[in-house]
Amino acid sequence: MSLGLKRGTVQLEPHDKQWDEAAIQTIKILKSILGDDAIDIQHIGSTAIPAIKAKPIIDIVVGVTDFDKVMFVGPIEISEYSHVCNSKCPECGKCTNKDCTDKIVCLEKCECKKTIIEAESDSVIITQAENPLWGGVSKGVYSDTNTGYLKVENDNAGSSFTFNITSNKEGLATLYVYVTPKKYEDYKLNQQSDLIINDTQITYESETVLKDETLEDNHWATYFRRIKVARISLKEGNNTITFKTKGWHGLMMDKIEFYSDATINEK
């Protein structure tokens, strides 16, 4: 990320997500210095608009209770702060280092917890297609690796399987799945399965499952790849996560994984 321009230079650059992060950190610094004298602090201008190009100059506007009070805050006091968080959670963006004593960038600590639910679990409910083929949807275990799985055979559009979970509060969770690759093509889970959260279908785009050309023809892979699926909303209490097959492609899943500050359990 580059910020600033030489005097007399006008240059537009594509939006950089790091501009947003720089603005967030600057706002935290200003809040720590100005305290209650600042009514509101906002990132404004072209760098705050993701869809357009902008000069790499971040504009911050501050609303204050009394302009005379903030005149006593000098640029040296602001520029002295230089802490950089090197322990940022990729899910919530908060600091994961509980021992860090920084009171600005790292003031908010990550509370994310990981929950794993196996796809072959008894709590996972299978709904077969109207006319299931080749065994439809089934659960099993690889004897060589003792790894459980849930398998959707080819040509079973309309079949589904549902994970039943509980959450101790309403909030967001990041959903990951472990699935097998294909031999001849990369794929995304959203190309093959609808995702239905609490009876509401959501729009999502998963990470790509990269192909493995070393696989034997007409054989499933015996290992799984972890991909990020979506950031989903959970309600307090019981929740259902349903994957519904929408094409002819088969699927093999080992487990799903949640990251959230909520406590999530298998129902």
Ordered list of secondary-structure elements with their pairings:
Elements lengths: L16 H18 L3 E7 L14 E6 L2 H4 L4 H5 L33 E6 L6 E3 L9 E6 L4 E6 L7 E8 L3 E9 L7 E2 H4 E5 L2 E3 L5 E2 L15 E10 L2 E9 L5 E10 L3 E3 L1
Antiparallel strand pairs: 1-2, 3-15, 4-7, 5-6, 6-15, 7-14, 7-16, 8-13, 8-15, 9-12, 10-11, 10-14
Which shape, going by the Cα principal axes? Answer: elongated
- Radius of gyration over C-alpha positions, nearest whole angstrom: 24 Å
Mean pLDDT: 89
CA-CA gap between termini = 45 Å
What is the H/E string?
HEEHHEEEEEEEHEEEEEEE
Helix content: 10-25%
**What composes the largest sheet?**
6 strands, antiparallel
Structure description:
The two termini are 45 Å apart. Helix content is 12%, strand content 36%. The chain is elongated. The mean pLDDT is 89. The strands form four sheets. Strands 3, 5, 6, 8, 13 and 15 form a six-stranded antiparallel β-sheet that branches. Strands 4, 7, 10, 11, 14 and 16 form a six-stranded antiparallel β-sheet that branches. It has a two-stranded antiparallel sheet with strand order 1-2. The chain has helices spanning 17-34, 67-70, 75-79, 189-192, and strands spanning 38-44, 59-64, 113-118, 125-127, 137-142, 147-152, 160-167, 171-179, 187-188, 193-197, 200-202, 208-209, 225-234, 237-245, 251-260, 264-266. The relative contact order is 0.15.
